[in-house]
UniProtKB/TrEMBL annotation:
PANTHER family (alphabetical): HTH-TYPE TRANSCRIPTIONAL REGULATOR YJDC, TRANSCRIPTIONAL REGULATORY PROTEIN
Domain of life of the organism encoding this protein: Bacteria
Domain HTH tetR-type: 10-70
Alphabetic keyword roster: DNA-binding, Transcription, Transcription regulation
Organism: Streptomyces roseolilacinus
Protein name: TetR family transcriptional regulator
Length: 193
């Protein structure tokens, strides 16, 4: 079987991403050495630099991959429900549950804001899970389930609370207590009608 150059590049890139992800999750950004990632992935250091330019480039691509997967998990959990309110609850719960995933905890919640900077980290978050939160809140406001209000500040408040709580869970906090607190917080958003 003949493998094209494009297929080989894709395989090499994926191997580097997989090994980078494993090491960033286990060791943290500052302890990872790109040459060691390349060696463990079975490629040359030059191939690693060709695909990612630097350790920061590999980390950025890893963050993007983990963010995208998390956004898909959140959306999948929400889509299992017909009711808009239950979609919001399920999506938020899925995000909190992700705090037990070492890659999410270390890569997204601990290292990404510090390594990439707040603005870049927020932009990546907006492309994935934060976008789903904004869409859910917009749909709830349009349906009259929550009061009509500017959605962006509400989404940012909830996103910040979810990020902090996922990190708290990752550090040993009680997931059940977090879910109960989440339900009480969300209940305060519902209209009285």
């Amino acid at each position: 079987m003949v493998v094209s150059r494009a297929e080989q590049r894709a395989v090499t890139r994926q191997a580097l991403l997989a090994e980078g992800r494993r090491r960033f999750a286990a060791d943290g950004y500052h302890r990872v050495v790109l040459a060691e990632v390349a060696r463990a992935a079975g490629v040359t250091k030059g191939a690693a630099y060709h695909h990612f330019d630097s350790k920061a480039g590999l980390f950025r691509a890893t963050v993007r991959q983990v963010q995208q997967e998390l956004g898909e998990r959140v959306a999948s959990a929400a889509e299992r429900h017909e009711d808009l309110w239950e979609q919001l609850r399920a999506g938020c719960r899925a995000f909190l549950a992700a705090g037990t995933d070492p890659a999410v905890r270390r890569i997204l919640l601990v290292d990404a804001p510090a390594v990439l900077g707040w603005d870049e980290w927020r932009a990546l978050d907006e492309e994935s899970s934060a976008r789903h939160l904004t869409e859910a809140l917009t749909a709830l406001a349009e349906a009259g389930v929550i009061d009509d209000q500017p959605v962006e500040p509400l989404a940012r408040l909830l996103s910040g609370a979810l990020n902090e709580t996922a990190l708290w869970i990752a550090r040993g906090g009680d997931p059940q207590a977090a879910e109960q607190a989440l339900d009480r917080l969300l209940a305060g958003l519902r209209t009285s009608a």
